[in-house]
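Retro notes, item 3 of 5
We never archived the inputs for the adenosine-5'-diphosphate complex last cycle. Fixing that now. Sequence and ligand:
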Amino acid sequence: MKKVGVIGGGQLAGMMAKEAKSRDIELIVQTPNPDDPAARITANPVLSAIADVNATQKLADYCDIITFENEFVNLEALKVLAEKGTCFRPSLASLEPLLDKADQRRYLQKIGLPIPRFQVLEKDAKINSKYGFPVVLKARRHGYDGRGTFILANKNALEALWNRLERPSMLIEEFIPFSCELAVMAARGVNGEVVVYPVVETEQENQVCRRVFAPASVSVEVNAEIQRIATILLDRLQVVGIFGIELFLTQENQVLVNEIAPRTHNSGHFTLDACDISQFAMQLEAVTGMPLHSPKMLCNSAVMVNLLGFENSQSDYQNKREQLANIPHAFVHWYRKTESRIGRKLGHVTVLLGEKNKEKGNAIAQKIESIWYE
Ligand code: ADP
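Structure as it came back at the time:
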């Protein structure tokens, strides 16, 4: 039995743990809180902060391979473990250019992938937008679910925000008036094979993902361009594991890379129910050295809706979950968090559809949201 250690213990590690059980893999997580979703359903979690390298050493002493649930790791400290022989998959070298949004943009530019125009703003520099307004300001690290991403309407708003944040080094980039947002999950195995999931359309509200439609209704050319981007990126980084790639489709049908998540991703949750192999199983197969096969959808289309916290509460919303489960072909995934907070991801629902019909997908998403947020 292979032992896989995961740095992180939230819902992504939790969903991976369920896949590990049916694959003869023992999964051990490192996470600070015993109530975290993955800590509650796995044996012997290492209860320590994500960036605590001594805890990761303990995890590494027990496991064959260490993988990641999130990118909030202390790479410099982990390098010491790698030098002593810990096997990280993906490797620290393939994560290095991605953890800081400014480094990530520079790296994508260097390897020739299409991205929005950007500038790295140094600490205390004179702030200005070369790109007109609105303009986008982003924290270089530790942003997620839109925290750390700010869309500013004018010069006053830009200056006021930057001063309020105490003028740190940040990324400033052009606002893309996209026709839609897309995302794709792609994995690479130890032998270098790259497999790519169907491209999906994502819908964000206030910079947080609310809905995912799989597959996206985009042209053959756009699909091919996204396949090309995913393959170049994973090959150049020599990735072993799965990555999520978030993209903008411009009104001129140009694909731009917004962000790389070097791990499983919310936009890939539909794969649990709608594909022959989920993103979590794919990550496990990749990091344990199994040959990878191209994933296929089991239905014509699917819609995934996030269940976000809308109040501070300790309810488990059983009644709402039952109503959601009664929607035909619905799969309700509940992360068993002990507390609901506004905006917190508490679960998701995927509904499988017999046809490719965005209007139908929209209607189902609305139904789910009207039950959840009623
Ligand atoms: P996070 O790391 O928090 O997910 P992102 O960089 O992915 O932050 O941004 C979150 C959302 O903000 C995106 O999905 C998109 O809706 C919006 N956004 C980010 N950058 C831009 C941009 N340059 N132009 C237009 N919208 C943007």
